Amino acid sequence: MSSPLLDVWEAASTSPYSPSVGKGAQFTIAFLLLFTSLFLAGVFSLNRSIITLPILGIPASLAFGFGAVYMICAVGVYV
C-alpha cells in the first residue's frame, strides 16, 4: 500500500527546485523594483487623485514590497 505523500516525495526527488530568479540576479531585480517604486511613488505624490491610485499607487506599493523582499534575500538576510 503506497502513501500519496510518499509518491509526491519520490516524484519531487527526480526534479530539483530551480528558482525563477537566480541568486546572482536578485540584487539587480531588487534595485530595479525599488527604484521603480520610488519613481512611481514620487509621481503619485505630485498628482494624488482617485484616478491615479490604481495607475501609480498600487504598482508602486507592489514594486516596493517585492523589491524589499528581493533585496533582503540578495544581501543575505534570511527571514
Q: Could you explain how this protein is built, in words?
A:
It is found in: Membrane. It is a multi-pass membrane protein. The chain is an all-alpha fold and 79 residues long. The protein has one domain (22-79). It has helices at 4-14, 26-46, 52-74. α2 runs antiparallel to α3 (52-74). The model has no long low-confidence stretch (mean pLDDT 89).
Summarize the structure.
The chain is an all-alpha fold.
Distance between the termini: 39 Å
| Morphology call | elongated
- What is the makeup of the main sheet? none
Helix-strand topology string: HHH
Total beta-strand segments: 0
Structural class: mainly alpha
Q: How much helicity do the residues have? A: 55-70%
Number of domains: 1
* Overall pLDDT level: 89
Task: Extract low-pLDDT stretches.
Answer: none
Number of helices: 3
Q: Rg, please?
A: 19 Å
How much strand? under 5%
Summarize the SSE layout with pairings:
Blueprint: H1 4-14, H2 26-46, H3 52-74
Membrane topology: Multi-pass membrane protein
Subunit structure: Component of the oligosaccharyltransferase (OST) complex.
Protein name: Dolichyl-diphosphooligosaccharide-protein glycosyltransferase subunit OST5
